[in-house]
Design a protein that fits this description.
69% helix, 2 strands, mainly alpha
Length: 321
C-alpha cells in the first residue's frame, strides 16, 4: 500500500482553506496532461515526413540526456554506474522506450494521432492483469469490468468499418497496443523489482544514455540516421519539441507523485487521452466518427474502474504500477 496525500488543505490563520492552494495540484495536473497530450500530434508530424523510428528515438534519447542530466546536476545527484543499476538502465531503456517507441512510431505513420491517444489509454487497464500475474494485486470485479470496457472500446474501433478512415489501418492497431502493453509492464516491473536503488530522474537519465548508445549505431546500420546538419523543417521542430516536453513533463510528474501521491497523480491519464485527441484536431485537423467518441467514453469509464481508489478508513490507495 502506498499512502496517498490528497492535495493538501492548509488553513490560514483565520481557519479557512486557501482556495488557490487547493487549486495548485490540479493546475499542475492539467499542465502535465495537456503537455503530454501535445507530444502525440508532434510525434505524428515527425514520422509522417519520412523520418524513421530508430533515428527519431536516438535524438529523443540525446535530448533527454541533456535535459535530465541538467536537472540531475542541479539536484546534485550522482549517477550510479554499478553493474546492477546498469542492468536496470538497460531493461528500462528496452521496455520503457525502445520497444514501445519503435512500435508506436510505426503505427503513427498510418494511424491518426487521436486513435493512438485512445490506445495509450489502455495502459492502466493492461496493468491490472499483469499485476495479477506478478502477485502485486488481488482479483477485483470492479477492475475486471474496467478492463472489459477497455477491450470493448478497442473492438469497437477495429470492428466497425466506419471507425477508421481506412480499413487498411487495422493492421497497425496491434503496434499501438504493443506500446501500451510495454508501458503497463514497465510500471509493474517497478512495483515488483524496484528501480535498482536510484531515483526516477536518475533512472530515466541512465536509461536514456543506454538507449542512445544502442540506437545510435542501430540507426546508422539500418539507414535510419537523421543528420541534423540541414535546413530544419516542421518535422525537426516536432521531434525536438516532443523530446523536450516529455523529459520536462516527466520530471514534473515525478514531483506531483511525490507531493500529492500516486492515486491523485494517476488521473493525468484522462487528460493525456482527451488533450491528445484535442491537439490532434487542432493541429492536424483530425476528425473522428461516432464509434471513436463512444470508444473514448468506454475508455474513460474503464480507466475510472481500474484506477486505484481511496480507502475511506485510512486514506491508503492501491495501485498496480
Amino acid at each position: 500500500c502506498i499512502r496517498d496525500r490528497w492535495p493538501p488543505e492548509p488553513k490560514s490563520k483565520f481557519g479557512t482553506i486557501g482556495l488557490m492552494t487547493r487549486l495548485i495540484p490540479f493546475a499542475w495536473l492539467l499542465f502535465i496532461g495537456t503537455s503530454w497530450g501535445l507530444t502525440q500530434p508532434l510525434t505524428k508530424i515527425a514520422v509522417s515526413t519520412g523520418y524513421q523510428p530508430f533515428g527519431i528515438i536516438f535524438w529523443q534519447m540525446v535530448i533527454g540526456v541533456i535535459i535530465l542530466g541538467t536537472v540531475n546536476n542541479i539536484r546534485r545527484r550522482p549517477l550510479p554506474l554499478n553493474p546492477r543499476v546498469i542492468l536496470f538502465y538497460f531493461l528500462f531503456a528496452m521496455i520503457g522506450t525502445l520497444i514501445p517507441n519503435a512500435s508506436s512510431y510505426h503505427a503513427y505513420t498510418v494511424l491518426p494521432s487521436g486513435i493512438m491517444s485512445l490506445l495509450l489509454s489502455l495502459i492502466p487497464m493492461m496493468a491490472f492483469p499483469i499485476a495479477l500475474v506478478l502477485g502485486l494485486d488481488e482479483f477485483n470485479i470492479k477492475r475486471l469490468a474496467g478492463l472489459s470496457l477497455g477491450l470493448a472500446a478497442v473492438l469497437l474501433i477495429v470492428g466497425l468499418p466506419t471507425a477508421l478512415p481506412d480499413p487498411a489501418m487495422l493492421a497497425f492497431i496491434p503496434l499501438g497496443i504493443l506500446a501500451s502493453l510495454m508501458y503497463a509492464f514497465e510500471g509493474n516491473f517497478v512495483a515488483r523489482f524496484g528501480t535498482g536503488g536510484v531515483g526516477p530522474v536518475q533512472l530515466l537519465l541512465g536509461s536514456s544514455i543506454v538507449g542512445a548508445v544502442i540506437m545510435g549505431p542501430l540507426s546508422v546500420a539500418t539507414g535510419q540516421w537523421i543528420n541534423p546538419l540541414h535546413s530544419w523543417h516542421a518535422e525537426d521542430w516536432a521531434l525536438i519539441g516532443s523530446a523536450f516536453i516529455h523529459s520536462f513533463v516527466y520530471t514534473l510528474y515525478v514531483m506531483i507523485v511525490r507531493n500529492y501521491g500516486p492515486v491523485f497523480s494517476v488521473q493525468v491519464s484522462y487528460l493525456v487521452t482527451a488533450t491528445g485527441m484535442g491537439w490532434a484536431m487542432l493541429i492536424l485537423g483530425e476528425r473522428y466518427t461516432g464509434p471513436v467518441w463512444l470508444a473514448l467514453g468506454l475508455m474513460f469509464i474503464g480507466m475510472y474502474l481500474v484506477s486505484p481508489q481511496f480507502n475511506d478508513n485510512n486514506g491508503v490507495g492501491r495501485t498496480p504500477n
